[in-house]
Design a protein that fits this description.
The complex is a heterodimer. Chain A has helices spanning about 15-35, 40-60, 65-70, 75-85, 90-105, 120-130, 150-160, 170, 175-185, 190-195, 210-225, 230-250, 260, 265-275, 285-305, 310-330; strands at about 140, 175. By secondary structure, chain A is an all-alpha fold. The longest helix of chain A has 23 residues, at about 15-35. Chain B contains 15 helices and 17 strands. In chain B, strands 1-14-13-17-15-16 form a six-stranded mixed sheet, sandwiched between helices. In chain B, strands 2-8-7-4 form a four-stranded antiparallel sheet. In chain B, strands 11-10-9-12 form a four-stranded parallel sheet, with helices on both faces. Chain B is globular and about 105 Å long. The chains are: A mainly alpha, B alpha/beta. At the A-B interface, α1 and α3 of A face β15, β16 and α10 of B.
Chain lengths: ~350, ~550
């Protein structure tokens, strides 16, 4: 107690991150409901890897370990990555991705607060480029695949890579709704008939639309608790809605509707949890809007014209590059100097 | 209802005012001694006009205002001058200042005062002179001599804003003053309005002070041009710029005079003191001080200027566990290095600090750019960017991002989830920039001197050459003058003697010249220099300690 102010608001980085983790829970519960508990194994593996990599890196960098481990930031990165990749995958997939995210994308850039790129999305990018085949085997929603897989078998596959006799990976997994749409359109499928496939539900994928709704709920909680501002999620979703709506209006046969885009892939997770990472997003309100609209446009273009199943990760990383520039461009006018601009 | 404006940001810390605003203002006991600094205001210190051993009466001038911006200092009671020397003062630097120590004689005997029944016929310059001689300075904390602010400006002043917002937690001195002495405050405001040729007086009071608002509204109803207005409670709503914005909608940028925009602002306590000074001739020898925090009975005292802080705290009953005394509020106040110093005109509040009230700072984590600081910054700055620039000593960039618009209110540090002492970084960057500018100025002066000398030497050489040429020309024309011969013929030892004489003379001259800028300093100047140096050293130390922004366990 040497300098004013002598009082502080009882808030901490650790509590902020904890609230974000908390806000992920509705989405995770719906995930388990529709796809079985494999995702919990991924989250657990990611958490353990994330925390131990964080501790190791802190030790190597000669930084105090306990206060940084308690800040919950590594845990959040781990969870976000786990939620971004297929849950039914060999254990080393999530381990490698998390290690890369924490060690390279976070600590080699200076640790908490200094990383220019979203670590979870770097982890995702590394995995999808290095292990594309493992990254396309998404669990089919419960009751939808050609064969069901109980938790014991899921665990067996994750840890030992072994499936029950008579089952193939293709039998229990499928491409994501976004990927399926892209492939079918490539094969000259008709939009109407594609969307009648059993994988599609009310507005998008049969289970994933619910999971997206869960993330939307959690995101609203973050907004109400003032952990995030409205700028990034609102502008991202509105822009994505607008651009997909425009394409849909022009050519409905080849472009799915805007609600499909909003409730597919990582739209909701990205809007509320990934793009809003304060460290890698702009600090000014106008900057956040530019950032979010850019991310939405890139997401749509990558989804429709790119070679990857989803566009959120690469859109995030590409927009992360622009953050310093956007911030410099969008400095708000200060008190009493509004006419000087 | 008057339309009120808002300003960006602000925070809502626990106000902690109920502790001290329940009791009326008490008159503090006559202390055992008074330690009165000669410089309690912005500007030149007052010149001592008394001697050790001299007996003075209450209200007698002991320090005469000297220089353009200055204010007089008075004996707060009658008694004997015991010492005139450097003493610790209520300032964070802990450096001593020239103080007059007065031992009260217990009679509390006033000097002959010069009251004014009706000030309206008196020339304004006389009124200003009276205010200056009465030592009236801004009591909101800025302690700027009030007479300097009270004249009809080039730009027409429309509004006089009277600041009774008192937004800092714990402080209730203005609250109690408004409750108990509303009429006199408004008499002072009327005087100020007249001196400023202003049209209206708007009194801003935060809405957590209903009694003060009622008292002031009641008193204001007797003046046609005055209005007491409840403003929302939000820190730092009592900052002059913020209150002006809320009441008038005008934003006064840093470096801009509010008077150029038609507004002048005074604290309610200043208006009260100005009134006492003009109407009754009473100089500013006491003020209301809130004594609160870790004390048995928090309360407001009317304390004599110079009352040792320890004695005043003792009146409220200091409790065990006190770790230090904060002067001002918990957001912008300063931790006093000593409780031996005397109450000064800027002492609005004394908080006995304890670990329970103000826990030690938590470990610092890196900035995660959450921008909570930007959300609460009333100057609408980007504190997270300024923090990076200050840390990287990227001072030019910090200035670009309007570092000097920062009012150091501390709202950013208050909300920072990483517990970064942001305000300290800004103070550090500001002082570094000031030091650089001073260095630059000195370098410019040195370069100018050097260039001037070069050109002088050049000129002298040229003149010599011309003279020689002219001489040679003359010699060539006529017969060579005998002088030349004589010069040439001068014996060598004679030449050496002359040279030696010249050198001796130069040496003697040098010995009589003393460096003027470093030796004949007044104690005030020395104190000022030492204080600045100490502050910079301390800030540097702090900055060094937290440069890595490493968690400290």
């Amino acid at each position: 107690m040497l300098f004013s102010p002598y009082i502080t608001k009882p808030d901490s980085v650790s509590k902020i991150m904890l609230q974000v983790l908390f806000a992920l829970i509705p989405g995770v519960i719906l995930y388990v409901w529709f796809y079985g508990p494999a995702i919990l194994v991924s989250i657990l593996l990611a958490s353990v890897t994330g925390l131990s990599t964080e501790a190791l890196m802190l030790k190597l960098r000669k930084r105090p370990i306990a206060p940084f481990l308690k800040d919950n930031s590594a845990l959040l990165t781990a969870w976000l990555l786990a939620l971004s990749i297929p849950p039914l995958a060999p254990w080393w997939l999530i381990v490698v991705g998390t290690m890369f995210a924490i060690a390279i994308a976070k600590h080699l850039y200076g640790g908490l607060g200094s990383n220019p790129f979203n670590p979870a999305m770097i982890g995702y990018a590394v995995l999808i480029i290095s292990f594309p085949s493992q990254m396309t085997h998404w669990l089919a929603p419960v009751g939808l695949g050609s064969a069901g897989l109980d938790f014991q078998s899921q665990l067996n596959y994750i840890l030992k890579g072994a499936l029950p006799d008579g089952l193939t990976l293709d039998g229990v997994t499928m491409a994501t709704p976004l990927d399926t749409l892209k492939t079918q359109l490539h094969m000259n499928g008709q939009m109407q008939s594609i969307l009648e496939m059993p994988i599609y539900g009310r507005v998008a994928g049969v289970g994933s639309e619910w999971v997206s709704l869960g993330f939307l709920l959690g995101g609203l909680y973050l907004y109400l608790r003032r952990i995030i501002s409205w700028h990034i999620p609102a502008v991202f979703l509105i822009t994505l809605f607008a651009i997909s709506g425009a394409f849909h209006l022009i050519d409905p046969a080849r472009h799915a509707g805007p609600l499909f885009q909003l409730f597919s892939g990582a739209s909701m997770l990205g809007a509320f949890f990934i793009l809003t990472d304060p460290i890698t997003s702009p600090a000014t309100p106008r900057g956040r809007m530019i950032f979010a609209s850019g991310a939405a446009i890139l997401t749509y273009l990558i989804r429709v014209y790119g070679g990857f199943p989803d566009g959120v990760a690469f859109a995030t990383l590409l927009m992360n590059i622009c953050v310093p520039l956007i911030d410099a461009w969008t400095q708000p006018a200060v008190f009493g100097r509004k006419d000087e601009r | 209802m008057r339309k009120l404006y808002t300003f960006h940001g602000g925070v809502h810390p626990d106000t902690c005012k109920a502790q001290s605003n329940g009791r009326p203002i008490a008159k503090a006991k006559l202390p055992s001694k008074l330690v009165i600094p000669l410089r309690q205001h912005v500007g030149h210190g007052a010149r001592v006009v008394v001697e050790v051993g001299e007996h003075v009466k209450k209200g007698q001038i002991i320090g005469q205002a000297e220089g353009h911006v200055s204010s007089s200092v008075h004996a707060s009671t009658s008694g004997t001058i015991a010492a005139i020397d450097m003493q610790p003062v209520a300032h964070p630097s802990g450096l001593p200042e020239l103080c007059v120590t007065l031992i009260p004689d217990g009679l509390d005997e006033w000097v002959t005062l010069e009251p004014l029944e009706d000030w309206r016929g008196i020339p304004h310059s006389d009124l200003r002179h009276r205010l200056r001689n009465a030592g009236v300075v801004g009591l909101g904390g800025a302690v700027f001599p009030s007479d300097m602010k009270l004249y009809a400006h080039k730009h027409k002043i429309r509004t006089l804003v009277l600041n009774g917002a008192e937004c800092e937690p714990y402080i209730t001195c203005d609250d109690l003053l408004m409750r108990e002495r509303a009429e006199e405050i408004l008499m002072g405001a009327e005087l100020m309005r007249e001196l400023l040729h202003a049209d209206e007086v708007l009194i801003g009071i935060e809405d957590n002070k209903p009694e003060a608002i009622a008292a002031m509204q009641n008193a204001a109803s007797k003046h046609s041009s005055m209005e007491a207005i409840a403003v929302p409670t939000i820190y730092p709503g009592g900052g002059a710029k913020q209150l002006i914005r809320v009441l008038t909608g005008i934003e006064v940028a840093a470096g801009v005079r509010s008077t150029d925009l038609g507004v002048q602002c005074f604290n309610v306590g200043t208006a009260y003191s100005a009134w006492r000074a003009i109407r009754f001739g009473e100089p500013l020898i006491s003020r209301i001080v809130t004594v609160t925090g870790n004390v048995a009975s928090p309360q407001n005292f009317e304390a004599l200027i110079g009352t040792p802080i320890a004695e005043l705290i003792a009146e409220a009953g200091q409790l065990p566990g006190t770790t230090g005394i904060i002067m001002g509020g918990p957001m912008m106040g300063v931790l006093l290095p000593s409780d031996k110093a005397g109450v000064i005109k800027a002492t609005n509040c004394l908080i006995a600090a304890s670990d329970a009230l103000f826990p030690p700072p938590k470990p610092v984590l890196p900035c995660i750019r959450c921008t909570r600081c930007a959300e609460v910054c009333p100057a609408e700055l980007q504190p997270q960017d300024l923090y990076w620039f200050a840390r990287a000593k990227n001072l030019a960039k910090a200035e670009d991002y309007h570092l000097f618009d920062c009012i150091e209110c501390g709202a950013c540090s208050y909300v920072c989830p990483s517990n970064i002492p942001l305000v300290q970084y800004y103070r550090f960057a500001k002082s570094e920039i000031w030091a650089q500018q001073a260095g630059q100025k000195a370098a410019d002066a040195a370069r100018e001197r050097h260039e001037f000398r070069e050109s002088r030497l050049e000129r002298e050489k040229r003149e010599k050459a011309e003279k020689l040429a002219a001489k040679e020309k003359a010699a060539a024309k006529g017969a060579s003058p005998p002088v030349t011969d004589k010069q040439n013929a001068e014996p060598v030892d004679e030449m050496q003697r002359k040279i030696q004489a010249a050198i001796d003379q130069a040496k003697a001259q040098a010995a009589t010249v003393k460096p003027r800028n470093t030796e004949q300093l007044t104690p005030q100047q020395m104190a000022e220099i030492a204080e600045i140096e100490a502050r910079r050293a301390r800030i540097r130390e702090i900055a060094q300690a937290s440069t890595d922004a490493q968690p400290r366990e």
